[in-house]
Design a protein that fits this description.
Strand content: 5-15%
Bound molecules: 1,3-dihydroxyacetonephosphate
CATH architecture: Alpha-Beta Barrel
CATH topology: TIM Barrel
Number of helices: 12
Distance between the termini: 39 Å
Structural class: alpha/beta
Number of strands: 10
CATH class: Alpha Beta
Order of helices and strands: HEHHEHHEEEHEHEHEHEHEHH
Strand order of the largest sheet: 1-2-3-6-7-8-9-10
CATH superfamily: Aldolase class I
Helix content: 40-55%
Radius of gyration: 19 Å
């Protein structure tokens, strides 16, 4: 694939005011989210929920692309249109999660390795045929007593490299996601060090495996203190530590960084993204700094939807509002007062 085309897709995904909706929860994960709101995880409910999100009027002002799950990319809307075509008709780029999940890593107690390389070349060809133009693979790095091990970082980084090379061969843009989890009581310093080590290893593998860095996006965590710890950090500190870590580990040729929300509340994920963009504008950085949020964009609409299409337009309004706020944060133009001064679709 022409490197120019991959770079063009990557840049479109991180355009000046837009970012990505991650709606690629596996059936197990969406089941947990539905359980929390008392909704049965049937194929129809999963379809209705995701159709509700992508059909939101005007959403392409704030969202560039949507990451889908295997089931969703093959589903049809309630009106019989392919969901992928609904997405394309809204001016959004369809993407697909292609890993098959994080599994226990042999020889370790609490560490994980992401699977899904077997048969990946064939699946990628099928997904491209179905309309996907970008892909995602999530590796999970856990911080705890004596972990992460260099073994865990190494095998996950190697798999990310193989996934990215295969994706580019198939003519799509890989979103390379090494997520250092925020679970635990660790300090922001530990998150900084583990993330830096992980990112360096990931770029070592991407380079060794011939991945074109101009035709990919990186999806990292922000640098945060552990969620269960007692010391919290202000957005300004998170921004400073995040950019400091990235300047030391992410090559300038990568066109964009799209953060995961990782279990932050939606307003935290917005405020932190805003602070990161403000800091980046102050010091000048080469990469676009945008978002690829799952929970950060979906918590409010999911809570309102509650499995009932009667709530559909209110849920779409909530999704639209959070996307608007996140888009403002992606430009470093968010202000807390905007949370109460919202737009009507
Ligand atoms: P969260 O924003 O909920 O962390 O999800 C993003 C994602 O796609 C994780 O793989």
């Amino acid at each position: 694939m022409d490197s120019y085309v991959l770079n063009h897709i990557a840049k479109a995904l991180v355009g000046p005011s837009v970012g990505i909706l991650a709606a690629d929860e596996s059936t197990g994960t969406i089941g947990k989210r539905f359980q929390a709101i008392g909704v049965q995880s049937t194929e129809e409910n999963r379809r209705n929920y995701r159709e509700m999100l992508v059909a939101t009027e005007g959403i392409s002002q704030y969202i560039s692309g949507v990451i889908l799950y295997d089931e969703t990319i093959k589903q049809s809307s309630s009106e019989g249109l392919r969901l992928v075509d609904v997405i394309i008709s809204k001016g959004l780029i369809p993407g697909i999660k292609v890993d098959t999940g994080a599994k226990p890593l042999a020889g370790t107690k609490d560490e994980l390795v992401t699977e899904g390389l077997d048969g990946l070349r064939q699946r990628l060809a099928e997904y491209r045929e179905l309309g996907a133009r970008f892909t995602k693979w999530r590796a999970v790095i856990t911080i705890g007593n004596d972990i992460p091990s260099s073994y865990c970082i190494h095998v996950n980084a190697h798999a990310l490299g193989r996934f990215a090379a295969l994706t580019q061969e198939a003519g799509m843009v890989p979103i390379v996601e090494p997520e250092v989890l925020m679970d635990g009581t660790h300090s922001i310093d530990v998150c900084h060090d583990v993330t830096r080590t992980t990112l360096k290893q990931v770029f070592y593998e991407l380079n060794s495996q011939g991945v074109d860095l101009t035709g990919m996006l990186l999806k990292p965590n922000m640098i945060l203190p552990g969620k269960a710890g007692s010391i919290k950090a202000e957005p300004s500190e998170i921004a400073e530590r995040t950019i400091d870590c990235f300047q030391d580990s992410i090559p300038e040729s990568v066109p964009g960084i799209v953060f995961l929300s990782g279990g932050q509340s939606d307003d935290e994920a917005t405020a932190n993204l805003d602070a990161i963009n403000r800091k980046a504008q102050e010091i000048g950085v080469s990469w676009e700094l945008s978002f690829s949020y799952g929970r950060g964009l979906q918590s409010a609409p999911l809570e309102i939807w509650k499995g009932d299409n009667v709530n559909r337009s209110r849920a779409q309004q909530a999704f639209y509002n959070r996307a608007y706020l996140t888009s403002a944060a992606r430009q470093g133009k968010y202000d807390k007062v905007m949370e109460t001064n919202l737009l009507e679709i």
